[in-house]
Specification:
2 domains; 13 helices; binds pyridoxal-5'-phosphate; three-stranded antiparallel β-sheet; seven-stranded mixed β-sheet; Aspartate Aminotransferase, domain 1; alpha/beta; globular; Aspartate Aminotransferase, domain 2
């Protein structure tokens, strides 16, 4: 079976983790702040907050932006469920903005229309969460301008997109957002086994996220509300969680980060190769916006004939190729249907879902394997 994604762990990664295991700190040691500093250096963000998953990063980002019961949060339906669940963790209401039919990313025109309607009905969202599907940046300038005009905060779910660029800045720079976050799950661009990171330019948001990841507790002398009781003393100011990243995870993440450029360029080369090998077939390759560089987490293709997708998927799997589908629209999930969402809410997203197939793409995919994927697809489509 050729998998659709696979981590790339080398000896340096193993050594980095072993060094932590034999040191005095397994969690909350020096590795976590060093990983955070490395992410700041990469992205140009002022602050980075490491957590145990991107799901946790989504949750503490919502908390830091004050999302609470009665608020609205909007995201894309073409995403992993975590991008929407975070709003529900906070007791807020979730809604979905339709996508661009070529990229599957949040559509600025659909967002503009929905914001205008919400403004006249008093239901503007507090936060919108655009998702950089496949590592391809959303049109953040357009989304950021709309958010400013309506006083809405922006969290970029860049779980797929570390190492990518939008215009002249790295994704994570928060040029058009309040918070950006990455996932280090093994199928993503770099891994810390499980892990996530939120970046921001805002000191207050960084502080709120740091407290939320660790029980709402602080040891910062400048923040104390009561007189200092001694060196042991800490204060709880809010209700937080244990979302901390371990030093083993941070060491693995830092070691992987040193190969980020290599991973991204290998992924881009493989994607370019797909584009030329697949040309002429009855499908469109999903590609990044002009003026952006994708980390190419996924190579998604849209079949011209959506009715054949199920058969093409099954045939490819039968040929030993682990194609996938990213994603089933979140609001069609049974849990979301029970909340009252109806099919037809986002027609472009539903159409996109019907057409898509994710092809294997990971740095170690060999030319021979890639040819097998392409030849199998040609055979199946015939
Ligand atoms: C993987 C993923 C997440 C969740 O990441 P975890 O680190 O597994 O919690 C969230 N959003 C998107 C778009 C993802 O692909």
């Amino acid at each position: 079976m050729i998998p659709y994604g696979q981590q790339d762990i080398n000896q340096a990664d193993l050594d980095a983790v072993m060094a932590v295991l034999t040191s005095s700190h397994l969690t909350q040691g020096p590795q976590v702040p060093q990983f955070e500093a490395a992410i700041c250096a990469l992205t140009g963000a002022n602050f980075a907050v490491a957590v145990n998953s991107a799901t946790s990063a989504l949750h503490i980002a919502c908390i830091a932006l004050g999302v609470t019961a009665g608020d609205w949060v909007w995201t894309s339906p073409i995403t992993f469920v975590a991008s929407a669940n975070c709003a529900l963790y906070c007791g807020a209401n979730i809604d979905f903005v339709d996508v661009d039919r070529h990229t599957g990313n949040m559509c600025p025109d659909a967002l503009a229309q929905k914001l205008a309607w919400a403004a006249s009905h008093g239901t503007l969202p507090k936060v919108i969460i655009p998702v950089h599907l496949a590592g391809h940046s959303c049109d953040m300038q357009a989304i950021g301008q709309l958010a400013k005009r309506y006083g809405v905060k922006v969290i970029e779910d860049a779980s797929h997109a570390i190492g990518g660029r939008y215009h002249s800045r790295m994704i994570g720079a928060c040029q058009y957002s309040d918070i950006c976050l990455f996932s280090f799950h093994p199928v993503k661009i770099i891994t810390s086994a499980e892990g996530g990171m939120a970046t921001t330019m805002d000191a207050g948001l960084a502080q709120a996220m740091m407290m939320a990841r660790s029980h709402g507790i602080t040891k910062d002398a400048e923040l104390m509300q009561r007189p200092d009781e001694g060196d042991w003393y800490y204060e709880q100011h809010g209700l937080g969680f244990n979302y901390r990243m371990t030093d083993m995870q941070a060491a693995l993440g830092r070691s992987q980060l040193s190969r980020l450029q290599e991973f991204v360029s290998q992924r881009n080369q493989l994607a370019q190769q797909y584009h030329s090998l697949l040309s002429g077939l009855p499908l469109q390759t999903v590609r990044p916006l002009l003026g952006s560089v994708s980390s190419y987490h996924l190579q998604i293709v849209r079949l011209d004939n959506a009715e054949r997708r199920r058969q093409v998927f099954d045939d490819m799997r039968a040929l030993g190729i682990q194609v996938h589908v990213h994603y089933f629209p979140v609001y069609l999930q049974p849990y979301y249907q029970k909340l009252g969402f109806k099919a037809g809410l986002c027609p472009q997203a539903e159409q996109f879902y019907q057409q898509i197939l994710t092809l294997p793409l990971f740095p170690q995919l060999s030319a021979e394997q890639q040819n097998t994927v392409v030849n199998s697809l040609k055979q199946v489509l015939q």
